[in-house]
């Protein structure tokens, strides 16, 4: 499972990127604008760093690299794979020392945008943007997640959306149908309480689980243009009343549907409660579906989106989630070769293998079928294709100061020590600091 953690270290990363903006040491005196044209001869050395050192995932990337090298004997790819937190530390050091690899991993949102603002990510619009043959192979929402200033900078690797998993047997026993609106969801929770069933298993020990709810509600309650401006650290103000509305809705959701003392309960413990049939629903990422598919004894489950409140001012088609992806070093001497490898990595065949190997959805169209993916994954993929946009995780789309303020504020709200208005006052203060930092 991809664990979403807070990004308190991002301020240091931003400073490192700012100092690195004038160059990247591993490429010496290479031009600031990378040559992304297809190489006449596929030859040379590529460096690549990922955060997929986990034994469950690492072999896939090793096999793709080996296959590309076999097809192109004059290419040598030096692949380094580290874990989640070690990657964050490593990329900070590489940025500060101006020694970024040719290809490097990135989360969507402000994590990627920091590299763009620092001039360290190549503009891939001509290769993967609208109207390109490569770009047409991807789900549009996945490409959009790596847009900045209307330009494309990232190659999406996977798709991860947030859904409410529900136990079909528990729903049937309580006589509850799948809710279509946020208000219907609250009413359903009341019915489950009356029937003696925990409505939603919810653990927020590390804070990110609550932020996923808030991410979705922000997208529903705040106009898209306002949301984009506020999530940009240069213009973030967070004065729209929809932010307070979203927090109030989340508070009501937890009160009527959630687990008591959620701050002391881990997400995994809550998940175990759902699998054991002790809760009707559990809010999960699509990368977690495999846990339910392999449950023993098996459970009869399905998914639906966290539904939008009636009359909400935001985008009712937005879906919380985001792809992970790769950026190309803007100063790489082998940028064209890097793009060629990323095209190979994102081929339909390789994407289908990734889904089969560890149940990750790929943004590559047609890569998930009944032969390599569970029915719920196929449903999620179909739904993602209908999403107007991804509402990128609040703890990665915003500046580190804002993410930290949201995290501590929402945790305080759950413990009863802060009101939604107080949370947003703290967020506005953090946004003001972020504007000064990037200004």
TrEMBL record:
SUPFAM superfamilies: Periplasmic binding protein-like II. Transmembrane segments: none annotated. Keywords: Signal, Transport. It comes from the Bacteria. Residues 1-23 form the signal peptide. The keyword NAD does not apply. Belongs to the bacterial solute-binding protein 1 family. This is Raffinose/stachyose/melibiose transport system substrate-binding protein. It comes from Nonomuraea pusilla.
């Amino acid at each position: 499972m991809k664990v979403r953690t807070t990004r308190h270290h991002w301020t240091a990363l931003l400073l490192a990127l700012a100092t690195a903006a004038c160059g990247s040491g591993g490429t010496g005196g290479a031009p600031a604008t990378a040559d992304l044209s297809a190489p006449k001869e596929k030859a040379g050395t590529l460096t690549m760093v990922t955060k997929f050192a986990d034994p469950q995932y690492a072999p896939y990337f090793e096999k793709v690299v080996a296959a590309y090298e076999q097809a192109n004997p004059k290419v040598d790819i030096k692949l380094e794979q580290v874990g989640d937190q070690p990657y964050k530390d490593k990329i900070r050091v590489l940025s500060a020392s101006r020694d970024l690899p040719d290809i490097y991993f990135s989360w969507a949102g402000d994590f990627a945008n920091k590299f763009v603002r620092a001039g360290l990510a190549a503009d891939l619009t001509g290769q993967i943007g609208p109207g390109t043959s490569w770009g047409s192979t991807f789900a549009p929402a996945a490409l959009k997640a790596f847009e900045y200033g209307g330009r494309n900078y990232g190659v999406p690797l996977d798709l991860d959306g947030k859904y409410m998993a529900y136990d079909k047997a528990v729903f049937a026993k309580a006589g509850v149908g799948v809710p279509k609106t946020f208000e219907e969801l609250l009413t359903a929770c009341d019915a489950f309480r009356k029937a003696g069933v925990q409505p939603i298993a919810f653990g927020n020990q590390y804070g990110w689980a609550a932020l996923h709810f808030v991410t979705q509600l922000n997208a529903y309650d705040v106009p898209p243009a306002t949301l984009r401006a506020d999530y940009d650290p240069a213009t973030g103000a967070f004065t729209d009343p929809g932010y307070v509305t979203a927090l109030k809705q989340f508070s009501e959701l937890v009160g009527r549907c959630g687990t008591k003392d959620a701050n002391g309960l881990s997400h995994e413990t809550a998940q175990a409660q759902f699998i054991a049939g002790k809760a009707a629903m559990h809010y999960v990422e699509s990368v977690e579906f495999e846990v339910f598919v392999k449950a023993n004894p098996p459970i009869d489950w399905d998914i639906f989106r966290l539904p939008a409140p009636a009359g909400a001012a935001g985008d009712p088609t937005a879906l919380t989630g985001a792809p992970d992806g790769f950026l190309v070093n803007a100063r790489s001497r082998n940028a064209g070769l890097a793009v060629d490898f990323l095209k190979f990595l994102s081929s339909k065949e390789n994407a289908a293998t990734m889904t089969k190997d560890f149940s990750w959805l790929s943004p590559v169209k047609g890569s998930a079928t009944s032969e390599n993916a569970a029915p719920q994954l196929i449903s999620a993929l179909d739904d993602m294709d209908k999403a107007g946009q991804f509402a990128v995780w609040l703890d990665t789309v915003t500046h580190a100061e804002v993410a930290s303020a949201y995290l501590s504020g929402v945790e305080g709200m759950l413990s009863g020590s802060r009101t939604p208005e107080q949370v947003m006052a703290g967020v506005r203060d953090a946004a003001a600091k972020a504007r000064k930092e990037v200004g």
